């Protein structure tokens, strides 16, 4: 356990070292955040529009979605791909720790770093401009944290499974981007699923993606009540378990395939 | 006269030779090409699909209907694709500065800027242009754009101007690397700004933002003003004269300024020291 703790801490320190990088990602995310808020404002227009969601809710939704995006940066796929390509997997296999566990600890470390140096500054900036996005209640905040963590586990496992394909193709390339666009769209990170046609909504609600972004945000802004949120959190738990299982099984298959490059 | 023709021919033959080399090197990694062919259409396809879903819930974005936004979005993506084909090298100035790549360019008897830009014609950019053209054509049909020679000429001039504006801002940001050794962050912020300002109508933003991106940092010209003129709309800041000509003029002007900045930066270039 101490090992993983150490890896995590080293990543938190690493996020502090790259200050310029931090400023640029915050700036990029702020641009996207501002653009999407004004986009929603224009969509709602001046007159009252028939919608179950108020403009205020939608603004908070967008702000939170962009804030979550900085927390949800995973490097597992990149790490696996790089280690396979450069032959470092050989060294990884010698280490007496769970490789995936070490990647997970590293990404949790990054997440904590992002929380301190990206999330909080962005929260303050967007709060000063658009009003602070506060949780509807204390239980909602607690459930939001649980739900965000489960969402992260689901996302992380998808990326991990994806990264394991490196053992076959060596170089993943831009396909990773395609996967990100699909996840971003299906998770309701820009357009919440409740704006989609009824039939599609029902399908999407049972897919894992909605539970990465939309479920935690909905709990936070009070789109669903604390009691109502127990069901989606249950589905989140289910998907998180399924994903972890898939990842560990797939990892066994992939590790048998290992080809060490160079030497 | 003969000398001039010879010089043009010489430059063209170099462009052609470089182009052949880049195509060959890009074909070395066919899986990458396939990857981009999948990723880029998905990115823009989901972008426009998202807008479609919002508009079908709310009726319009500001004064703009879905077809009109598609037209605007199309101009934006096509000009983005073409910029990536022609000016991707501006993203790499940072590396060329850090690794002393400019040493090589400077030793050859040819303009450094010309060599840098033509040494990599990025075919991958075409994978952006495919969805871009599909969206633009769909938008043209949707808004009843008449494909007369004059209209097509105007559209072409608009896109040319848009490419120059995008290229100029990338060149400007890339050239910052001559002074700071790093510009990747700026380039990233640029591309996010381009998306935010040219894929949605600029009129959705507050007046101050519109003024900033029209007069100071003229990226609103990439798509908004020309699209607005084609569609006969009047929202946003007032503008005199033909928008497509102004777009081209602005593009040429900022590109020239960016070029001067590049040359100034180059004069401060100090190689990598190893």
Rg of chain A, Cα atoms, Å: 19 Å
* Biggest sheet architecture of chain B: none
Mean pLDDT of chain B: 91
Strand percentage of chain B, roughly?
A: under 5%
Q: How far apart are the first and last residues' alpha carbons of chain B, in Å?
A: 43 Å
- Helix content bin of chain B: over 70%
Major sheet size, sense and barrel closure of chain A: none
Q: Give the overall shape of chain B, derived from the CA principal axes.
A: globular
Give the number of helices of chain B: 13
Topology order of chain A in helix (H) and strand (E) letters: HHHHHHHHHHHH
Instruction: Give the % helix of chain A.
Output: over 70%
Task: Give an overview in words.
- The complex is a heterodimer of chains A (about 260) and B (about 270).
- Chain A is mostly helical.
- Chain A has one domain (about 1-255).
- Chain A is about 75% helix and about 0% strand.
- Chain A has helices spanning about 1-15, 20-45, 55-70, 75-85, 90-95, 100-130, 140-165, 165-170, 175-185, 200-205, 210-220, 230-255.
- In chain A, helix 3 crosses helix 11 (about 210-220), helix 4 (about 75-85) packs parallel to helix 7 (about 140-165) and helix 7 runs parallel beside helix 12 (about 230-255).
- Chain B is mostly helical and about 270 residues long.
- Chain B has one domain.
- Helices cover about 75% and strands about 0% of the residues of chain B.
- Chain B has 13 helices and no strands.
- The longest helix of chain B has 29 residues, at about 30-60.
- Classes of the chains: A mainly alpha (about 260), B mainly alpha (about 270).
- The interface of A and B includes residues 24, 34 and 175 of A.
